[in-house]
Amino acid sequence: MEMQGRIIRFLCILTILIFVFMNITNEFDPLREGIILDGAWKIALEDSISFKEKEFNDSNWKEEEFIYKNVLIKKEVEKLDKTIWVRKNVVIPQELLSQDLMLYIPRLPNYHKVYFNGFLIGKTISSPEDLFNDWNRKYGYFIPKNLIQYGKENTISIKTYSSYEYGPSKSLTIERAKDVLKRINIYSSSYTYMYLTNMIILLGMSAYFYFIFTRMKKKKYSYFATLCFVTAIYYIDYFVSTLPIPYIVFKKIVLSCMFFVPILGVLFLREFLSLPIYKAQKINIYIRIMIIALGVILFKDTISYYKFRRYYMIIFTLDYMYIFFMVLWDYFKNHTKKKWIYPLLLIILLMCGHDICNALRGIFPPLGFHLNIYALMIFIGIVALDLAKEYIDIFTKAGKDGLTGLFTQSYFKNELIEIVKDKDIIKKPFSLMMLDIDKFKTFNDNYGHLIGDEVLKIVSRIIKETSPENAIVTRYGGEEFGIILKGYDEKESLVLGEKIRKNIEEFRLKIDENSSTNTTISIGITTFDPKRILIHSEMLIEEADKALYYSKENGRNKVTHHREMRYKR
C-alpha cells in the first residue's frame, strides 16, 4: 500500500514538472540571430475561397498587424470564409549573407502558401477544403539564397484561408535555418510527448481511482476518476495531427469533455469536502448536460461549432463565477475542515478565468500559455495526493486497534462521513457517543502501565458487549472511545449510555491477591435528527465532545446528552 502511495506522488509531481519544463522550453526559446517580422503588414481579401493567383491594386491593401484574430468575436465578418493575402517588405542585412535562412511561422491555422519575392517557397499539405485546423504545428520554410536581395527590400507574401479565425499566435521571424529546425524539432517532439505523457498519466490515475471506488464505494473516487478521464481526452486536442474520425466529430468529443470538467468539478468538490449537493446545484447540472447534448447534435460544421462554443462560453463563465463564489461562501461559513484547499481553489479559478476572458475576447494566450492547463494539473495532482493518502491510511492505520481490537479513529470518521451522506440512514435518527475513562492518568501512575492496559482492554470489552451488534465501537485515542449508534434516538442512546456506565462502574479489577479496584467513565451523547441541516459530520463529534466534557466537569461518572446540556445552561 505504501508503494501505491509513492507511485501516485511520483506521477503527480512528474506531471506538474513536465508541464512547467516543456512550456518553458517551447515558449521562451529566444531569437539568437535574425529578424522579427512584427508591426504592420499589408492585408487584402479575395471574395471567394479560391486560391487562384490574383493581382491586387494598391487600394485593395490595408495595413494592420498580422496576429491571431477571432473573426466571429472581432465582428470582422468580411474575413469570414475568405482568402487572405498578407504582405510585408523586409530588408535582410549583408551580415546574414553567410547564413542559411528560414522563415519561421508559429501556429498558423488553416491552409496557407508562402512566397518570397514572388516565388513559392512552401505550403501546407492539406487543402482549403480540409476542415482540419492543426494548431499543434509550427512551420519553417527555407529561403533560397538566390532569391534574397541582401541590403535591399524583399517581399514576403502569405496566402491563407479564414474560417472563424486567422493569423499566427506570435510574430513571424527570419532566422538561421539550424535554429529554426532545432526549435521545430524540439517543439514537435516535446509538445507531443508533454501532452501525450500527461494524457497517459491521467488515464492511469483514472483507472487507479476507479479501482479504489470499486473497493471503497465512495462517490468522490468515481467523480475524481471520471474528471481525470475527461481531462485526458480533452488534452488530445493539444497534440493530435491526424485523425481516424471526421474532424467535426473529434471537436464534439473534445468540446463535451471540456464542458463536463466544471460539472464533475462541482460534484467532486462537494463529496471531497463532505458537503451536501443542493437541489439548485443538481438542477444546474441537468440543464448544463441538456445544453451540451443539444449543441453537440445541432452543430454540423466548424462555423456552427464555433458559434455554439462562443455562446456556451458565456454559460461556462457564469458556471466558473458560481463555483468561485460557492468556494468563498463555504470558506467564510466554515463548512469544512479542509481549509488548505480554499486558497488553492481560488488561485486555480482565477487562472481558468484568465483563459476564459481571453477566449471570450478572441485573444491567443500570451506566449502560448494556457493557464487552465496548469490549473487543472496542479489541482488534480494535489487532490490525487490527498485522496491516495486517505485511501492508504484507511487500509494501513484504520483497521483494528492492536491493544483493544476496536476500530480506530480514522475508520470511525470515515464511517461517520458515509453515514451522514447515506440518505436511507439519515431518514432515521442516529446517535454518536463519546466516552472517556475518569482519572486514567492517575490510575496509570498508581498501578503502572500494564494494569492501565488491562483496564483499557476490560473497558473496551464491556463497551463492545453492551453495545448493539451494528454499533461501530472505536478506540478514539488514549483512554477515549467512540460509538456510532444507527437507528438510536435520544432516549434510547441515553438508556444505553447509562447501562455502559453502570456496567463499567460495577466491574472490579483485581490488582493483586489482597486488593481490587474499579474505574468509572464519563459519557457525552449527541443525536442526529433527520429534520436538522448538517453541514459536515464533524459537527456531531464536536457536540458529543462538549457533552462529554460537561459530564467530566460536573462530577464525572455520568451521562450527558448535548441537548440536555444546552437546557441546563
TrEMBL record:
Transmembrane segments: 7-24, 193-211, 223-241, 253-273, 285-305, 311-329, 341-363, 369-388
Keyword hit for Protease: no
Residues in coiled coil: none
CDD domains noted in UniProt: GGDEF
Gene Ontology biological process terms, A to Z: cell adhesion involved in single-species biofilm formation; negative regulation of bacterial-type flagellum-dependent cell motility
GO cellular component terms attached to this protein's record: plasma membrane
InterPro entries, per database record: 7TMR_DISM_rcpt_extracell_dom1, Diguanylate_Cyclase, Galactose-bd-like_sf, GGDEF_dom, Nucleotide_cyclase, Rev_trsase/Diguanyl_cyclase
SUPFAM superfamilies per UniProt: Galactose-binding domain-like, Nucleotide cyclase
Listed PROSITE patterns: GGDEF (PS50887)
Protein name (Swiss-Prot/TrEMBL): Putative diguanylate cyclase YcdT
Species this protein is from: Tissierella creatinophila DSM 6911
